[in-house]
Design a protein that fits this description.
By secondary structure, the protein is of the alpha/beta class. It is built from three helices and four strands; from the N terminus they run βαβαβαβ.
């Protein structure tokens, strides 16, 4: 899930990037910002959160766990 910030030009590039790697572009979701409750509910639709190295997710990881989404992290 990505957030819209008024610059829609990056969305096709991101979808193209994932399509080249075998991910259905329809699985990439972009949304506007919304209230915290709706935000956590939206995160619960994810299958998995990847906590990347070297910059970890901090609050993003905490919110994913609160929403019941498993997290894979690199130690």
């Amino acid at each position: 899930m990505g957030y819209k910030d008024g610059r829609d030009s990056y969305e096709p590039n991101i979808k193209k990037f994932f399509k080249k790697r075998g991910v259905d572009p329809d699985r990439i979701v972009f949304s506007s910002l919304f209230d915290k409750d709706v935000h956590l509910q939206a995160k619960s639709h994810a299958n998995l959160l990847l906590d990347t190295h070297p910059y970890n997710g901090h609050m993003t990881v905490a919110e994913a766990l609160w929403a019941g989404v498993p997290v894979v992290t690199f130690p």
